[in-house]
Amino acid sequence: MTSLAFLMAGGASAATLPATFTFGPAKGVPGAVAADASAYDAARGYGFTSLPGGNEQAFSVHAAPGDYEVTVTVGGPNASRTAVWAEDRRLMAAPVVLKAGETRTVTFVVNVRDATLAPSEQDSTTPPHVGLRGDDAEGRTWDDKLTLSFSGSAPAVQAIAIKPVTARRILIAGDSTVTDQAGGDYASWGQMLPRFVDPALSVANHARSGETMKSFLTSLRWDKLMSETRPGDVVLIQFGHNDEKKQWPRTYAAPDGAYPAFLSALVADVRQHGASPVLVTPVARRSFKDGRIENTHAGYDAAVRDVGARLDVPVIDLTNKTAALYEALGSEISVLAFANGGKDKTHHNAYGAYTIACFVARDLAALPGLAVKTAPDAPACTPDHPDDPRRFAIEPGDWPIMRAKVTQGLEVKPVR
Q: Is the sign of the CA dihedral 245, 177, 327, 324 positive or negative?
């Protein structure tokens, strides 16, 4: 362990959930497992893991699919700054800044899932499962563990308590602009959303890079999402970036044809399960012309609004909100909201994803009938007065801090 101040205790024992793991003297914690610095061991059921090629250190515990209430005690003898992440870099708690000798607990709910679906008489003898692809199998979303990681200039963790719970869920369907991005300086609003909503809610992000509504259905990702949806849950649906690609003929959906038809079918399915659908227009691309953002989703964002109006479904308009965000930052500074050091004009970095997730959480809380609250410490956020990305600092341990150089004397619109 290099940058993370886990206060290690000696010894280890097998653990089953619920369980408390201590990383220091286990005084006053009856029955706690005193974890050592060993790598994850399947037989033992817990230990440290790291992503290939990354410098992030994380703690994993064997866990069956479901929701888990996690309480993390942060702080220690030295001054500390600790942000908490779960699974494939879902932000669960914003940085907790403490003085030397101070400790604090943060509690949240983590959703754990695997790729299998419950078999029924319509299936063969082989249980159905989600069609995983790419790096799915290497990530933390579809494995048999609950993984927590910690970042910050001086992170410190003393104890982790985990217990199964039944929680109300916010489930998300979408593409790469929504998914839990697991590498480089890429991030999406779906993985930042847990930090901004009531910590008693479980955010289950089923979005996947490269998905369209059609592929989301044929790969059984929608079936999986629906199998985990219960009455009273909320389902957020954002597609468009890939559905609009005519060069993908097998999944192309025209804005005046298959696209609204697919959206309508998904809405009906959510309601059939007793849950509440919320449609989200696709996030805008950073495409400036004469100081304004061009709408590269023309027709698609309008189709989402039309379906929402026709079916009486709430709509969160991220196309307009993100366009306003980029314009408020300006063409030069808005680069600092995007991945690959700003070279990517579609996908966001931690700052961009964090900011957009705040918009989503605030809009969800304002929708009547959903009863979704924001986190008690959720900041205020508006697209036309964004925080300054040059003063933003929050990233997982293996998330490079990508900061473009700003020309001295450059005139930009005011930002907080």
A: positive
The domain locations on the chain are 16-166, 168-416
pTM for the whole structure: 0.91
Domain 168-416 has CATH 3.40.50.1460: no
Edge to edge, what strands does the sheet with 202-205 contain? 202-205, 169-174, 234-238, 276-280, 315-316
367-382: pLDDT as tens digits? 999 999 999 999 999 9
Residues with Cβ within 8 Å of residue 216, at least 6 apart in sequence: 173, 208, 222, 239
What number of other Cβ atoms are within 10 A of residue 99's Cβ? 9
Are 383 and 359 spatial neighbours (Cβ–Cβ below 8 Å)? yes
pLDDT above 70 covers a percentage of the chain that reads 87
> At the fourth CATH level, which superfamily is domain 16-166?
Galactose-binding lectin (2.60.120.430)
Q: Is the peptide bond before 18 cis (omega within 30 degrees of 0)?
A: yes
What are the residues whose beta carbons fall under 8 Å from the beta carbon of 254, sequence distance 6 or more?
none
Mean pLDDT across the chain, nearest whole number?
88
